[in-house]
Each structure stands twice: as C-alpha cells, then as structure tokens.
Amino acid sequence: QVQLVESGGGLVQAGGSLRLSCAASGIIFNNYDMGWYRPAPGKQRELVAAITSRGAITGRGTTTYGDSVTGRFTISRDNARNTVYLQMNSVKPEDTAVYYCNARWLSRNYWGQGTQVTVSS
After folding, report:
1. CB atoms within 10 A of CB 72
2. Nearest Cα to 7, choosing from 61, 97, 70, 86?
3. How far apart, in whole angstroms, are the C-alpha atoms of residue 41 and residue 76?
4. Whole-angstrom distance, CA of residue 12 vs CA of residue 102
C-alpha cells in the first residue's frame, strides 16, 4: 500500500521559516519524481516545487520551482530515508495553504493527505 505522509505544517509568522517533510512507503522511492503542490485560484493545485529522481550522472535530482516561491523555498530529497523535504524561508501570508506531497513515475501518480501551513501577518 502506497503512503505519502506529510508533516511539519503549522502556524508561522510572516518572514519566518518552516520545513515540511513527506515520508513515502510502498514505492521504490528512487524511481519517483517528487513534488509539493498547493491549491491556487482557478487551478486544482499549483506546483510549489519538484525534484526528479536521482540523476544517473550527478546522483542528484533536478529541481523546479513555482514563480511565487523561487528564491525562498528549497526542495530536497533523502533517498536513504524515502523522504522529500520543503524548506520554506521568508514565508508570506499568501503562502497559507494546504501543502500536498506528490510522487510520480510513468503512469503512477500518488498524493498525500496534505499538511496545513498558516502564515500570520
């Protein structure tokens, strides 16, 4: 059974930091591209950050960020722990959302239940 379990959400003041974690089980983690998404107006969910599976040459995944978080958020993965992280720095009230973890490989696409992040002004 595939499980993606997010943690680390909570209440933080604007300008502060938070780190989200997503622990995966039931999948071959190294194969999967991992991402964080959140709801957005007019969209079901928007990309916050994504990291591909480990590159054959560099051994590291390639990262992609949504425009609104570039320079503030950092995604990383620990393949030994089957975990992906989202380091959120300089958070803003507009970052308030439920953050969902996603795992994707070929036709397989899995979602976590989400973790709430609330940024107070």
Report:
1. 15
2. 86
3. 26
4. 23
Contact 50, 34 (CB under 8 A): yes
8 Å CB contact between 114 and 6: yes
Closest CA to 78 of 29, 120, 111: 29
**Which amino acid appears at position 43 of this protein?**
K
> Which pair of tokens denotes residue 61?
């995944």
CA distances in angstroms from 6 to 23, 54, 86, 115, 116, listed in the order given: 7, 21, 10, 6, 10
At 42, the pLDDT band (50, 70, 90 cuts) reads confident
Concatenating the DSSP letter of every residue in the chain gives: --EEEEE--EEEETT--EEEEEEEESS-GGG-EEEEEEEETTEEEEEEEEEPSPPTTTSS--EEE-TTTTTTEEEEEETTTTEEEEEE-S--GGG-EEEEEEEEETTEEEE---EEEEEE-
pLDDT digit string (tens) for 71-95?
Answer: 999 999 999 999 999 999 999 999 9
